[in-house]
Amino acid sequence: MSVKIVALYAASNALFNIFLASRVSSFRRSEKVSIGVGSSKPLEIAVRTHANNAEFVPLALVLILIAELMGGVAWGLHLAGGGLLLGRALHAFGMPKRAPNFWRVGGTALTWTVIGCTSLWLLLLHGVP
């Protein structure tokens, strides 16, 4: 069975994660902090943005992968994968801004919605009433 759809979103999210990690490295160099965040607020925000992405993306991708393996329809897989990538981008854009803000809250809500809806979809694909 093909997993081309989840591969697209796994690769896209991996590249986005590398982008976030590179921002952490850049702040570490400019702030001269090799471990932790020191007293740098921008570095702390970059570290948390990257970590938050790394916390949520694997779970969502596993759920999307299982849905694809179970025969989930392509449009649903693209909706989940695209929603995940968009949610993560919105969250990252909103992190440096004063909280709460539309971007951060919207990105979190979209990410959680993808995880929740894909979980429910898997239960339906499994045959749980």
End-to-end C-alpha gap: 26 Å
| Quaternary organization | single chain
CATH class: Mainly Alpha
Overall pLDDT score: 96
Number of domains: 1
SSE string, helices as H and strands as E: HHHH
Number of helices: 4
Query: What profile does the largest beta sheet have?
Result: none
Q: Beta fraction of the residues?
A: under 5%
User: Which structural class matches the secondary elements?
Assistant: mainly alpha
Which helices and strands, and how do they pair?
Elements lengths: L3 H28 L9 H29 L4 H21 L7 H25 L3
Can you characterise this structure?
- The protein has helices at 4-31, 41-69, 74-94, 102-126.
- With 129 residues, it is mainly α.
- The chain has one domain: Membrane associated eicosanoid/glutathione metabolism-like domain (Four Helix Bundle (Hemerythrin (Met), subunit A), Up-down Bundle).
- α1 packs antiparallel against α2 (41-69), α1 (4-31) packs parallel to α3 (74-94) and α2 (41-69) packs parallel to α4 (102-126).
- The longest helix has 29 residues, at 41-69.
